[in-house]
Each structure stands twice: as structure tokens, then as C-alpha cells.
Amino acid sequence: MEHSTISAPEQVVERQQVREVVQTAIEVLRERRPEQSSPSAAANSFEAEALRAEIITVGRKLWERQYVDGNGGNISVRLGSKYVLCTPTMMSKRDLEPADICLSDLSGNILAGDRTRTSELLLHLEIYRVNPRARAVVHCHPPHATAFAITGSAPPVGLISEYEIFIGPAAVAPYETPGTQAFAETVLPFAQDYNTILLANHGVVCWADTATHAEWLTEILDSYCRTVLIAQQIGKPLMFIPEGKIAEILALKRRMGFPDVRLGHTPEAIAPASAKDGELDRLVERVVARLEGRD
Ligand SMILES: [Zn+2]
Question: Cβ distance 261 to 194 under 8 Å?
Fold first, then answer.
């Protein structure tokens, strides 16, 4: 672009005008992304293909670790801003094929795929609704964590550094009948500040940026619960990490952007739009600098 065709007559670049142009450009580019157009384009996109493969891998891991029995457990991943890929109902997580994965909208309506979606997708959708940082959700029934869930209590914190870093305090959501909207809503008070929620008399649910990472959280949680249960049988008191050292871990989590209820709401967790605005502002500043000949 020529400098003279864009700048105002008095040669002062109006930031607001530039902002509007940049905003429009971003929206046009977003519209052209296949996952933003039609459900079939979304289902057939390369991104969807890769996410289906990841869901299948995660399903096998859950089954191999004995976190899902029978048709138990479910996995979902967000696809763009309008869609979710999820596992079907009545299938072992060991046996999934790409054609079994359903495409749903954010209300739980199936848009592509021959199978019926998991009834517990409603739980996943509530997490996505209140937490834009959640891009993938894994729900399963790992025995050691579920053992805590049937006592209505979370495992104690402050015992193993890795658990503190990746999870920290887990929430316990009250019991409701699985598959119902009431069940889905039990996690609402916890879905922003906790990446790991025990579901009373049922199992666990974890969210993360990817399905792989959400599955990692279930592994870290269940191994931790198992270790705590074994340690409690040794007959010696548990030895906790000193508070000052926990503070160091929390400072690390803050820097890494990991959620932890002890840190309160992270900026990304409560204001994803403002992060995008920050990006937009930086773009506008670059365009203005170029137009003013400073760049
Ligand atoms: Zn379940």
C-alpha cells in the first residue's frame, strides 16, 4: 500500500480507522478457514482428521491404563470456534476408528458422523461454555481417583511436586445422574479454577489445551491418588512440602499460565477477548508504524 493512499489528508494516521480495517481483515481471513464454514467442510478438514487421530490414541491410552471399562469414559476436542469432535456412545475406547468420531455443535446437536454421541458430551460442553482455555476434555473412571470420588473428598495436596505443578487442588463436584443436564452443570463452579474435577460417586473429568494433555492430567491424578493411598498404609505420618516451597511452585504455575485455585482467576481464564484485543492492538501498532514510515 502506498503511504499517500491510506493516511489522512493531514498525514496523521487514525488508529481507530486502521483498527477497523485490521479487524475486518482478520474476520475475512477467519471466515475462509474451512472449519469455520459448513459442518461437512469442518468434518473433512485436515485439522479434524488430525484431531480424530489424537482422540483415538487417547482412547487407547485410557483403555490400556484401565481408566475406562466397558463403554465408559469419553473424549472431546474443540474444532475451531463452532464445533466439537467427540467419542460416540456404547463403544469401548480401545476400538475407536476415525468414522466413529462425531461432530457436534456447541449445543450437542450431531452434525456429522453415523453414531450417536456420548450422552456425557453435555458435561464437556458446559466446561467449554465457561472456560475458553479448555480445548479438550477427558472424562473417565480411573480406580484410585474414583476411590477418592466415592468418599466425596479430593486427595490431599502438598505431597508431590509434579502433582502440585500440573494439578494442585482438585475439586469435587456433587453427585447427579450421569448424562443429564443437571449432571453437566455440577462442574460449573469449578471449571475455571480447576483443571481436574472429581465427580462424586462417578469418576473424574480433566480439561486442557489438547486431548493428549487432558489424558496426561488423568494419569498424573490417578498415579498420585494411588501413591497417597499406599503411603497411608505405611503407618507413618505424611510429610508435606514446606509452605515456602509451595509458594515457589505457585509462582512457577503463574508464569506458565497453569490454572490453580490458589492463584485465583488467571487473566486468560476470565478475559480471553482481552488477550485477543492485545493481539489486535499490536497489529494495529505495526500497521500504523509502517504507514507513518517508522517501520
Ligand atoms: Zn462416566
Answer: yes
